[in-house]
């Protein structure tokens, strides 16, 4: 654990929405009197019919159930659009940056977005889409992705966004799993100057036993000549032109389904995570305002894709509920060059930037000049999400990107949790690099031994959450039993996150990675994240992944996959140097048994290291690598397999 600590800057301590005193008081209230607390926080939204009940939840098998604001009604699209029109109809809702910096971007006002959503919602209705029906969205990072999501929310259809980087097989599986009969896509996507054949992928997916699909709406993004199937495929622009700009918002029950999102699959078969309307909206909007200390008029950029939950909650829904200007970026951080993020920050005057450790490590590897040649003077707050951020990468983000002046919110959460669960709040908590700090309001984390003993005070264990929060997922689509079995049986009466976590003597939480990633070397339990952080702290190392491997003497040995900085040529000397380095940083117990250099690590399409596959390589069990459909680049695995070194 890094020992540096960054106190709350004075201007934040004085002026933040949530100061240390406010945090303590509100946090206590959120646990002691949830009904009053959530009644107040839910007032952030416009309800059609106010709720009379707040929290009706139980994690116990006998009376298991999760309902929030149960008898209230509302419409999320109306909360994102209609209610802003009078006051900020001409404010920009979405600032869109194209993949190619030479292509003109777009600035769409709330009034324009409202009109586009209504027209598209009417198009869906004209094609028979009804309340409760599943609509699959397979779209690039263009404003129409938000339009389609909001249109579904407006008419009460359930969207299932499938990341546009997924293969036809992965898409087909998701279409089938939720019985979707309509798919919305684009002719092609663009990423780093390369074309992605989205429409062709949909056609291929529909050849994979998706007979139920009778309608495909196709947005023109590149204008490529794509095959259109007569009677099935509809051109987006032609379709909406024929529709009225008036579409009443459906009155939805708080517990009516809002969307399904399949998890990224780093641990196995993707699950259709279902979120509902009221609780998710309250939770996303509240966390957005407090975590990012959001004030009206600020430009907010979450660099996640809408294909992930982070994109759902913090590119689209929460910023729009709060009337913010949200930046949407089609491209990638390293193209045309590694300065791109910071150029976009300067171009739009971004004040709050929220990104992922995987992107930061990739940029750190390219050197500081790409960052320092940009201004970034508008930035006031930085965020991180998706993986534990190594203290090394944290320090770089803080010192180089934020020039030491921007607090970093390291937000821990999951697709299942809807929005941020643990994070420092910039005006309330001193920062410790690599720590997700403190629980959000209403979240009571518990650390447990594998046997289910609660650990009090400082310690390390399995992370569970004691009680429900509004943005919790409600079920696994089509498999309620899998929902209960997966999350509520490991520790009876608690939600089990699957993650390991430490609590230090200040009460700060440190996510150590997935429980599956804990290795046991000669009886010593170690989180792989700690060894990875030690490796990444070496000046020549860009990224590292550590897994266990069977070892005759130690039970488990340590297998490290290492990617060096671009200018470094890995060799035997560096291998020896890294072994010594880890021994010095952590201790001899953490000595890697194998270090395999690799130009890249296998990652999910959301950029997370797929440790499940690395574990298989570590175990030398290469026959059954499991579901690899969510891998970003399968060639990386072939390369690792062919180059696997044997223990010395
Ligand atoms: P799957 O559940 O399909 O295997 P996944 O867990 O990668 O995929 P997500 O819901 O996107 O899918 O990711 C949640 C997980 O990401 C968390 O459980 C945690 O392991 C990790 N994570 C997210 N944010 C942080 C963070 N700030 N610090 C540490 N870990 C994080
Ligand atoms: Mg998960």
Quick overview of this protein structure:
This protein has 648 residues and is of the alpha/beta class.
Description:
The protein is α/β, with parallel strands linked by helices and about 650 residues long. It is about 30% helix and about 25% strand. It is built from 21 helices and 31 strands. β16, α12 and β17 (about 325-330) form a beta-alpha-beta unit. α11 (about 275-290) packs across α12 and α14 packs across α16 (about 390-400). The protein is globular, with a radius of gyration of 24 Å. Keywords: Acetylation, ATP-binding, Ligase, Magnesium, Metal-binding, Nucleotide-binding. It catalyses: acetate + ATP + CoA = acetyl-CoA + AMP + diphosphate. It holds the Pfam family ACAS_N.
Number of helices: 21
Largest sheet composition:
8 strands, mixed
Structural Rg: 24 Å
Percentage of residues in strands: 15-25%
Distance between the termini: 30 Å
Quick one: overall form? globular
Unreliable sequence segments: none
Number of strands: 31
Binned, the helix content reads: 25-40%
* Order of the strands making up the biggest sheet: 12-11-8-6-7-14-15-24
Cofactors and ligands: adenosine-5'-triphosphate, magnesium ion
